[in-house]
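ingest -> fold -> write
write: protein_1
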Amino acid sequence: MSLRYVSPTVDIREGDQLVSSGLGGRFPAGYPVGSVLSIHRDPGEAFMTVEVEPAANLERSRHLLLVFSEVDAYMNEPEADSSDGALSQTSDAEPGPDGNE
């Protein structure tokens, strides 16, 4: 797998072990992620790309865990559409002379 947008000032070497930081609160700190296979530094590019061998044996795994963030779930909720013919619960119209709208 590829780790993109790595700052060129980061002290990283082939063989380094990558672990979770715990900063996002989703995974505990120190959870093994993988090991660095290679580092690609392209002249003129602002960031490096790091190739990582996953710690998990993805080809033999029988189980997986799907993790969704609340932000993603919120972003994918359908918005209320007033063009669906539903009547509004409130009205801003002024009542007519007989008290009706």
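write: protein_2
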Amino acid sequence: MFGMLYETFPANRRLFKSRSFLSGLGTRVAKRKINDEKALEYFLHNSVEHQVRTIMDELKNVEEIRRALDLGDGTFSRTTHMQLAMLPKRLSAAGTRRHRPRHRNTPAST
């Protein structure tokens, strides 16, 4: 697969932002703790989703790659804030009750 990508996709194309931008992004992300859904969403969107979408949008423009990888219209992500916000409603509708995880020093209830 990598051989096909290397042969068909122009190696001189720049798909990422400048190294300076990526370095700054890395610094910002490293300073921010992932301790809730909003922080996780920020990390996924800025560090993963946007970069993958940029690359996939370019790859789907090369007909041979699009056919070989069956890319169709590209990618989509389900880790948006709206999807995360809807999770409790979906769990409730499915009859799944939410519970807090047991901490190691908390005895299990009987």
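write: annotation protein_2
Residues 100 and 106 are 12 Å apart (CA to CA).
The helical segments are 2-8, 19-31, 37-59, 63-69, 81-93.
pipeline exit 0
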